[in-house]
Amino acid sequence: MSTLSSTDAAAFGKVGVLFGGRSAERDISIMSGTGVLNALKSHGIDAHPFDPGTQSLAELEAARFDRVFIALHGRYGEDGSLQGALELLGIAYTGSGVMASSIAMDKITTKKIWLAQGLPTPRYATIEPGVTDLDKVASELGLPLIVKPPLEGSTIGITKVTKAEDLKAAVDVATGFDKVVLAEEFVTGRELTVTVLGQGENARALPIVEIVAPEGNYDYNNKYFTDDTKYHCPATLDAAITAEIERIAVEAYNAIGCEGWARVDVLLRESDNRPFLLEVNTSPGMTGHSLVPMAARAIGMSYEDLCVEILRSARLKIGQARG
């Protein structure tokens, strides 16, 4: 870990680390935020915890933060709502702005933009419970297929459907989180993820991480609470395939206007080594099992230095900083 001088650390001003929140990913956010807070403090930065799940926007304004590191996951933190409040309060923040955050949070809207840009993503259908013909969805997408709530993360509410008669039950699970449901073609292949840092022409991909979960099931438990899942970084891939995955990841990131940092999830189809984009996480996990720090380590960047680099990119996207 490189060490900031006291002058450089002071230049960040008073920093808030926002974590916790009210989403289904609250517990993971607390783990991420605690790690980020400790990392920033280790550099001498004047960092303080703030939980929007238990503290009000009035308290956020009263804290007089010069900038904040968003370590919130899911609704009310990763979906543009908090970003809008920070713009109104004039507090610089990490990650993407209001529009990019809200688009990335909605997997259906994200897919529409990617397809319009000619980027590869699995075929899909939007399901309105009680309205959509489920047999038709199963017939058009084929089986197995994946059913998921389009506004959730951390594999919450996701079901793999192998029989048409199980589709309704999977939809019922997903509607416990969202009113509209995403059904997606199941792509058999390798699970990969790409961290992207920066903005626009300066956006760059970090080394690709491959995820090898027990029985191919990268669920909530295998993602955060087990050591059985294996990770390979950099992923063992042909140079041309690596370059193609990094290219489409950066293009996917830029297509929805991401900036600062994000993680792009990709499937590499087994039959022909063709990559397919799944989703973008604009406030990725920063826990001990998280993939962004893993990718950073592969280029010699410590967890602490990664947190500082992300914090350094904090800014307002619409207005001007307070004062």
From TrEMBL:
Cofactor binding note from Swiss-Prot or TrEMBL: Binds 2 magnesium or manganese ions per subunit.
Pathway stated in the Swiss-Prot or TrEMBL entry: Cell wall biogenesis; peptidoglycan biosynthesis
Chain coiled-coil ranges: none
GO annotation terms (biological process): cell wall organization; peptidoglycan biosynthetic process; regulation of cell shape
Cofactor(s) needed: Mg(2+); Mn(2+)
UniProt domain ATP-grasp: residue ranges: 111-312
Top-rank EC class of the record's enzyme: ligase
Pfam families: Dala_Dala_lig_C, Dala_Dala_lig_N
GO molecular function: ATP binding; D-alanine-D-alanine ligase activity; metal ion binding
Compartment(s): Cytoplasm
Reaction catalysed by this enzyme: 2 D-alanine + ATP = D-alanyl-D-alanine + ADP + phosphate + H(+)
Stated family: Belongs to the D-alanine--D-alanine ligase family.
Protein name as annotated: D-alanine--D-alanine ligase
